[in-house]
Amino acid sequence: MYDILIKNGTVVTHEASFDWDVAIRDGKTAAVGVRGSLEGGSGGSCGGAAKEVVDASGKLVMPGLIDPHVHIHHPFKDGFSADDFYSATVAAACGGDTTVLDFAIQWDQSFDLSATAQNRNSQFEGDAVIDYSFHACPTVSSMETVEQVPRLIEAGIPSFKLYMTYSRQGRMCDDGVLYEVLKQTAQRGAVVGVHAENDAMCMFNSDQFVKKGWDVPRYFPLCKGNLVEAEAVNRVIYMNREAGGSLYLFHLTARQSLALVKEAKGRGENVTAETCTHYLLLNSDRYDREDGVNFICSPPLRSEEDREALWKGIREGFISVVSSDHCGFTAEMKRRGGGRFPATPNGLPGVELRLPAVYTEGVKKGRISINKLVEILSVNPAKVFGMYPQKGAIACGSDADITIVDPAKKKVVSAAGLHSPADWSPYDGMELCGFADTVISKGKFVVREGSFCGCRGAGRFVKRMCSER
Ligand SMILES: [Zn+2]
């Protein structure tokens, strides 16, 4: 007997869509078969084959979505962003996610990278409602950082993130250590992610802009122009080529950076590009609005030309992942810098709306197929970060992480209807469709009919492996 039978839905994979039913037992996907084939027995609506039947008529049944780039309880100035580990994972679950990847950032440099990761794990433990892991994020440019790499990989954290900027906030690793980490991970099949912006240009421009009094939001995208990103992308792609490593570019935004990724992929190099929901839906006009300060994030929102180039990059397979880069500051926190961008915390809330945003603007508007949506929101994050096919697949033996999407369900976005304590949304007032209706995490319901029904602490650390090269 199965625990759950999902019937009458359309199963969507990255390759095709099928009229399949899905059966779940003991937290795993136990069987997948053509519609009606798993009911067994005789008579009754489910023939006694399952304890519970989900009728997914008219709905899309996807592998549970994975957001590989969220920031929870993120420090700024004298406090933290608005989310805690419970509220952020509830918001993620309601957005169709069954796994999130956050960051173990070495804020306190007296702790080494392993200890930093253990501390991060203990913050999630007991509060997360869905599975989680994090990227190891060193902030010390030393040999010790390089030497820690194998230990992290052994502990099931085969992905790293290095900031190429933020030297003044003590978060940057210099190019010396970046190249060494690329070499270390290359030998072992782990992946190195970067926040690619040219640090010297960021600082120089920011200082000049402040001197001229150009510190209001409308100058922000000029201060961190496309070149600031593309130069760093160019440099790290070159280092990765020499190291023979596997490079992941977090939040790619500039069309010039995309051109560099295309060239690298054309040469057969292992480079994966990610962009985020807000770069696909919004442009830099937001900085001209009265609430422009809310939209301060790095890299900045770009032009329409960049926005369409990113969609094209997804369609053509040069951008492989769309994350939310969720960082939930309230409007009050955003205003604490007095409306000046150099003093404003960077980041936008968005973990709950990644799916409907990409569905509405991508699938509904004909920019991408539904299969591409599954590829960029679930399959590729699982593959790149060493979780496939435990996650990111509807297949026998995979974790029963399943997101059932109602393509017809429409809503006008209002922060009041969302679960992050951030009291505003970058998508406020937009009509979106394709919301998660039912979310199942390892065989347990976490969302039913759009409402959260999961348990605090049910989420577990996902021990990841090095992905195949
Ligand atoms: Zn981020």
Q: If you had to describe this structure to a student in words, what would you say it looks like?
A:
- The chain has helices spanning 85-94, 113-124, 143-154, 175-188, 199-212, 220-223, 226-243, 255-266, 277-281, 304-315, 331-335, 354-364, 370-384; strands at residues 2-7, 10-12, 17-18, 20-25, 28-34, 50-55, 60-63, 65-67, 70-71, 75-76, 79-80, 97-105, 131-137, 159-163, 191-195, 247-249, 271-276, 321-323, 326-327, 402-412, 431-441, 444-448, 451-452.
- It is globular, with a radius of gyration of 22 Å.
- The longest helix has 18 residues, at 226-243.
- It has 13 helices and 23 strands.
- With 469 residues, it is of the alpha/beta class.
- Residues 69, 71, 325 line the site of zinc ion (ZN).
Biggest sheet layout: 7 strands, mixed
What integer value in Å does the Rg equal?
22 Å
Helix content bin: 25-40%
Number of strands: 23
Note the topology.
Elements lengths: L1 E6 L2 E3 L4 E2 L1 E6 L2 E7 L15 E6 L4 E4 L1 E3 L2 E2 L3 E2 L2 E2 L4 H10 L2 E9 L7 H12 L6 E7 L5 H12 L4 E5 L11 H14 L2 E5 L3 H14 L7 H4 L2 H18 L3 E3 L5 H12 L4 E6 H5 L22 H12 L5 E3 L2 E2 L3 H5 L18 H11 L5 H15 L17 E11 L18 E11 L2 E5 L2 E2 L17
Parallel strand pairs: 1-6, 2-7, 8-12, 9-19, 12-13, 14-15, 15-16, 16-17, 17-18
Antiparallel strand pairs: 1-4, 2-3, 4-5, 7-20, 10-11, 20-21, 21-22, 22-23
The protein binds zinc ion.
Could you list some keywords that capture this structure?
23 strands, single chain, 5-stranded parallel beta sheet, alpha/beta, globular, binds zinc ion, 469 residues
